[in-house]
Automatic annotation (TrEMBL), chain A:
Gene3D superfamilies: Cytochrome c oxidase-like, subunit I domain. Belongs to the heme-copper respiratory oxidase family. Residues 29-543 form the Cytochrome oxidase subunit I profile domain. Pfam families: COX1. The lineage of its organism: Bacteria, Pseudomonadati, Pseudomonadota, Alphaproteobacteria, Hyphomicrobiales. It catalyses: 4 Fe(II)-[cytochrome c] + O2 + 8 H(+)(in) = 4 Fe(III)-[cytochrome c] + 2 H2O + 4 H(+)(out). InterPro entries: Cyt_c_oxase-like_su1_dom, Cyt_c_oxase-like_su1_sf, Cyt_C_Oxase_1, Cyt_c_Oxase_su1_BS, Cyt_c_oxidase_su1_bac. This is Cytochrome c oxidase subunit 1. Pathway: Energy metabolism; oxidative phosphorylation. Cytochrome c oxidase is the component of the respiratory chain that catalyzes the reduction of oxygen to water. Subunits 1-3 form the functional core of the enzyme complex. CO I is the catalytic subunit of the enzyme. Electrons originating in cytochrome c are transferred via the copper A center of subunit 2 and heme A of subunit 1 to the bimetallic center formed by heme A3 and copper B. One of its GO terms (cellular component) is plasma membrane. It is a multi-pass membrane protein. It comes from Phyllobacterium pellucidum. One of its GO terms (biological process) is oxidative phosphorylation. One of its GO terms (molecular function) is metal ion binding.
Automatic annotation (TrEMBL), chain B:
Residues 160-198 are annotated as: Disordered. Residues 163-174 have a biased composition (Basic and acidic residues). Coiled coil: none annotated. This is C-type cytochrome. PROSITE patterns: CYTC. GO terms for molecular function: electron transfer activity; heme binding; metal ion binding. Transmembrane segments: none annotated. Keywords: Heme, Iron, Metal-binding. Residues 75-153 form the Cytochrome c domain. It comes from the Bacteria.
Length: 637, 198
């Protein structure tokens, strides 16, 4: 029994603002220094780290893209050899999908969701710390392997038999497969945290119909992650087993099946597109609502469209496999379902258009990116409907038409909203504003550069240029357009460079931001910029969809939480009625040790199956250390 | 411009940069995968000096300069695995356990386990039925095949050893070190089952 010398169980209702701030800071803040940085479980610090890391990977992946454009700028160019080129396009795709797009969306959620639902930390904060270390380790594994000329060279979807034991020599494909394990562990961990945070930690009164659209989108995304990612983990593990211990999952001669890989991969791979796109839908909805000065038109329709997209996402993976030789009936079914996804997507577009029509748009940088998103995404969506049809897809499969299509959808559908979101939430995260002038230049360069770079790829594809070729002959009618694309890529790169310069410069010396610079109505703007370690001094109580717009002066709050230990409110799933005061785990170094032990196990297991046996010992020790009761106030609930 | 990066972040950034730079240095120092060997180096591979009895000897100088590529490099070993099938080795040696020709798995090398001996066996042929392949394969292919044949009989699997083929499985793949499992220690000395004497 622990006896405290002070007042037993001091509550926030007994304290004034100054004392409350001091007490809460003591309880919630992260100690300075390296040890504090390594053991923190603050969702804001971890979310920020996630965002920084993901943007570093974006920059690295962009450099690879430029390298490819250099090589393809003229026929028979000799800047990069075929082997290195194979590694580069594989790294570009793998890096952008697994190390940038998915993690950065989760990173935004890790930072923003707890603030938007009005709680003090994400659910399972130590798991959150663990997930970041796993993500970082996976990213380093891939990039260091690439640096030592062992980067994967089998394409980002690593089809067998090319990636199988007979044709992919060395450890390159294993590195790819094991990197998947790292990022999936981390993604699954974050998804579980988000689901629990959204369902159980919302501010009192924030019933399901008062959740901000960004939070809805992250909730749907998290369920997609939980349902889709196990498929790829099974597939990549089966691949490693085939390659290392000689199992026969993908060996037709022994009863295995190469198509099994494609099914497992795309059962994950197609929902993956929506895992990237749905958070962007949430960001766009948030930005549109703020800059048109009115709530998004058709809240219920938007939420339904999100959920519908999430459900349909699992019913159309086979459209990636139309040329694999599947039964006609199956192809027709998946054509229909692929076209059906245009319905919820179109619904969302029309809801945003209606919002803009009815509102008074303010054309600030975040809103410009949203408009850019709508233009580009609609074009990408239309080519999407085109390639959903089997006869057309058979013609353009594996050509630059497909390359153009998915860049329009992914860059248009996710990167534009993301950049808008960075401009939008930058003041909240750093406490400083980004430059509006540079922001407009950034948008102009990226929008122009993007369209000039990727639109001609449609034409190249129709002219028959296959994707993933490291060079082409001068006799082919492709050289002019390729040179044009490569030059346009420089404009695009200049736009991104300007964005990075603006972000770094503004973080250091931008003008200080007020708490709510855009006049937005969601809860994250109710706290200071940047938020204090405990997010809210008193937890808000929500009475409407737009808690900050109804009565901007005052916000009702809930009291009665302990200030001696980390505590937050657990509410009911539907109505968000307060249910309990729940403790939230404090800082711990054990997530880092656990991540390191897991990293050793996973990398070692590329080389010998015995690593799974011997490597599990340090993992067990680290997990026991993690869960050992330590007698902290948070432990004695 | 970088004042915004506060003190706690420097260790992370430094570690990140250090790891990537170290990796890039290792990659630069290491031989990148060559899909087409330089012609003079490939020609030099023919200059091995055998002992008078045709067993063992000295490989060409360039072989060491290249870092004994054909014994350890995963790409060359996997090429050897394909050449093994393409040039009909299984018709006499089966999957490595031997048939008309001697086994590679029984721990018994008639001409020694050195690369030069194996290369010479493939290139020039041997008595009792081993044909010469010098007119059917390039010397580089012969080295690749020799590396693979040596891997079949290795007692501990090399890191770059090949995995199973997409084919009927008749024995564990080279990366499972089948020789260690299948090697019959048997009575010491010349073994009648282990093929004809030279």
């Amino acid at each position: 029994m622990i006896v405290r010398d002070e007042v037993e169980d001091l509550r926030d209702t007994a304290l004034d603002e100054v004392q409350l701030d001091r007490r809460l800071s003591e309880t919630w803040s992260t100690p300075t220094g390296l040890w504090g940085a390594l053991s923190t479980v603050d969702h804001k610090i971890i979310g920020r780290r996630y965002i920084y890391t993901a943007f570093i990977f974006l920059a690295l992946g962009g450099i690879l893209a430029l390298a490819m454009r250099l090589q393809l700028s003229e026929p028979e160019a000799r800047f990069i050899g075929p082997d290195r080129y194979n590694q580069i396009f594989t790294m570009h795709g793998t890096n952008m999908m697994f190390l940038f797009a998915v993690p950065v969306m989760e990173a935004m959620a890790v930072y923003l969701v707890p603030l938007m639902v009005g709680t003090r930390n994400i659910a399972f904060p130590r798991l959150n710390a663990f997930s970041y270390w796993m993500y970082l380790a996976g990213g380093l594994l891939l990039w260091i392997a690439f640096a030592v000329d062992t980067g994967p060279d089998v394409g980002w979807f690593a089809y067998v038999p090319l990636s199988g034991p007979q044709y992919a020599a060395g450890k390159r494909a294993d590195i790819w497969a094991q990197m998947i394990t790292f990022t999936e562990v981390s993604a699954l961990a974050v998804a579980v945290e988000i689901v629990v945070t959204v369902l159980k930690q919302r501010a009192p009164g924030m019933s399901l119909d008062r959740i901000p659209l960004f939070v809805w989108s992250m909730l749907v995304t998290s369920f997609l992650i939980i349902l889709a990612m196990p498929a790829i983990m099974i597939a990549s593990t089966a691949l490693i087993l085939d390659r290392l211990v000689g199992t026969h999952f993908f060996n037709p001669a022994e009863g295995g099946d190469v198509l099994l890989w494609q099914h497992l991969f795309w059962f994950f791979g197609h929902p993956e597109v929506y895992i990237i796109f749905l958070p962007a839908v949430g960001m766009v909805s948030t930005i549109v609502a703020t800059f048109t000065r009115r709530p998004v038109f058709g809240y219920l329709a938007m939420v339904m469209a999100l959920v519908t997209t999430g459900v349909l996402a699992f019913g159309l993976w086979v459209h990636h496999m139309f040329v694999a030789g599947l039964p006609r009936l199956g192809e027709s079914f998946f054509t229909a379902s692929s076209m059906a996804i245009a319905i919820p997507a179109g619904l969302q577009i029309f809801c945003w258009l209606a919002t803009m029509w009815a509102g008074r748009p303010v054309f600030k940088t975040p809103f410009l990116f949203v408009i850019g998103f709508m233009v580009i995404f609609v074009i990408g969506g239309m080519t999407g409907v085109m390639v959903a049809s089997v006869p057309f897809d058979t013609q353009v499969h594996d050509t630059y038409f497909v390359v153009a299509h998915f860049h329009y959808v992914l860059v248009g559908g996710a990167v534009f909203p993301l950049l808008g979101a960075i401009y939008y939430w930058f003041p909240k995260i750093t406490g400083r504003m980004m430059s509006e002038t540079l922001g407009r230049w950034t948008f102009g360069l990226i929008f122009t550069g993007f369209n000039l770079t990727f639109f001609p790829m449609h034409i190249l594809g129709l002219q028959g240029m296959p994707r993933r070729i490291y060079t082409y002959q001068p006799e082919m009618p492709w050289s002019g357009l390729n040179m044009f694309i490569s030059l346009s890529a420089v404009i695009l790169a200049a736009g991104f460079l300007l964005f990075f310069i603006d972000a770094i410069r503004s973080a250091a010396s931008g003008p200080a931001a007020p708490d709510n610079p855009w006049g937005a109505s969601t809860l994250e703007w109710a706290t200071s910029s940047p938020p204090l370690p405990y997010n809210f001094a008193r937890l808000p109580v929500v009475g409407s969809l737009e808690p900050l717009s109804n009565n901007s002066e005052t916000l009702s709050v809930a009291g009665g939480l302990s200030v001696d230990r980390r505590e937050l409110i657990v509410t009911s799933v539907v109505e968000a009625l307060p249910e309990a005061r729940e403790s939230s785990p404090g800082n711990s170094i054990w997530p880092l040790w656990s991540a390191l032990a897991t990293t050793v196990l996973l990398i070692w297991s590329i080389f010998t199956p015995w690593a799974v046996v011997w490597g599990s010992i340090p993992v067990s020790i680290a997990l026991i250390g993690w869960f050992w009761p330590k007698g902290t106030p948070e432990d004695d609930t | 411009m970088f004042r915004g990066i506060n003190k706690a972040k420097w260790p992370f950034l430094a570690t990140f940069v250090l790891l990537v730079v170290a990796g890039a240095f290792l990659g630069w120092a290491r031989q990148p995968r060559e899909l087409r060997t330089d012609p003079p180096i490939a020609a030099d591979l023919d200059h091995l000096r055998l002992m008078p009895n045709g067993i063992s000897g000295a490989p060409p100088e360039s072989y060491f300069a290249e870092g004994k590529l054909y014994e350890s490099d995963a790409y060359n070993l996997s090429q050897g695995q394909r050449l093994y099938d393409w040039f009909g080795c299984p018709s006499c040696h089966r999957d490595g356990r031997g048939n008309v020709g001697p086994s590679f798995l029984d721990g018994w090398w008639l001409y020694g386990p050195e690369m030069v001996s194996i290369v010479a066996s493939i290139r020039d042929g041997r008595p009792h039925g081993m044909p010469a392949f010098r007119d059917r394969m390039t010397i580089e292919e012969i080295w690749q095949l020799a590396g693979y044949v040596q891997t079949i009989g290795a007692y501990s699997a090399k890191v770059g050893a090949t995995g199973r083929k997409d084919d009927r499985q008749t024995r564990p793949a080279e990366n499972r070190a089948p020789a260690r499992i299948l090697f019959d220690e048997g009575p010491v000395g010349v073994h009648p089952d282990q093929g004809p004497s030279p």
